[in-house]
Amino acid sequence: MNMQIGELKFEIMLTSAEIQQRVNSLAAEINLAYSDKTPVFIGVLNGCFMFMADLMKEITVPCEMSFVKLASYEGTNQAAITELIGVGIDLKDRDIIIVEDIVDTGKSLMHTLDALSHVGARSIQIASLLVKPTCVEFEFPMLTYVGFEISREFVVGYGLDLDGKWRNLKDIYKNVPA
Ligand SMILES: O=P(O)(O)OC[C@H]1O[C@H](OP(=O)(O)OP(=O)(O)O)[C@H](O)[C@@H]1O
Ligand code: HPA
Predict the structure, then answer these.
(1) Is the CB of 153 under 6 A from ligand 1?
(2) I need a surface site. Which of 7, 44, 121, 146 has the fewest CB within 10 A?
(3) What is the pLDDT of residues 3-26, one digit of tens each?
(4) Catalytic annotation present for 104
(5) Does 167 map to a domain?
(6) Of 54, 95, 101, 104, which residue is the catalytic one?
(7) Which of 45, 107, 160, when mutated, tests ligand 2's pocket best, judged by the most ligand atoms within 8 Å of its CB?
(8) Looking at the 3D structure of the chain, how many domains does it have?
(9) Averaged pLDDT, groups of 10, the chain, 178 residues long
(10) If you compute the radius of gyration of the chain from its CA atoms, what whole number of angstroms results?
């Protein structure tokens, strides 16, 4: 199945059924690993919304959840300071699972981890539906739950956007040469 967005050509990469099956097995792994815990799932908006919703429906351990947005401020002589807006839960001594749609360069995830480094969590793990191993610029030992390792091509659908659009597609498409 192909799709044309302006000049760009996309081909289906992961069907909704394939995604659901993988999300269910990630949830099963998490249920097992957290059987004696009450984790806090933190979804990083906007891209995570579909993955988070489908994952949470399969989580059977008692848990809390929240969504955050990353806000970056560039100081004149300072490195960018990143703040997480919207957690709303005291994270001290909690077991956190960060939920991301994609780890591409890893910069966003680095910012999220930075922002969470001072909250006094008991543990932090990461669940990302997609990872681009050939693009990631950092090591993430806490990236335990990965849906699919994919190649470098730009992808859209299931929460992932191109210029703010196409997040609503239920399958995931990848950019291919026209
Ligand atoms: O690993 P990276 O190279 O940092 O890219 C991954 C991030 O980029 C996208 O977020 P974006 O900032 O575009 O916001 P969005 O979730 O609202 O689309 C995506 O949702 C990831 O959070
Ligand atoms: O391949 C991608 N698609 C959509 N959003 C993204 N953000 C980082 N990489 C991507």
Answers:
(1) no
(2) 7
(3) 999 999 999 999 999 999 999 999
(4) yes
(5) no
(6) 104
(7) 160
(8) 1
(9) 91 98 98 98 96 98 94 55 80 98 96 92 98 97 98 97 96 96
(10) 17
Whether 4 maps to a domain, the answer reads: no
Residue located via tokens 């993988």? 22
- Tokens representing residue 43 in the block: 């979804």
Q: Alpha-carbon distance 132 to 59, whole Å?
A: 25
Distance between CA atoms of residues 39 and 96, nearest Å: 6
Which tens digit of pLDDT belongs to each residue from 36-45? 999 999 999 9
Residue 145: give its domain's CATH number: 3.40.50.2020
Please, which residues bridge with residue 2 across strands? Answer: 11
**Peptide bond between residue 46 and the one before it cis (omega within 30 degrees of 0):** yes
Alpha helix (H) residue ranges in the chain: 16-33, 49-57, 107-116
2 in any annotated domain? no
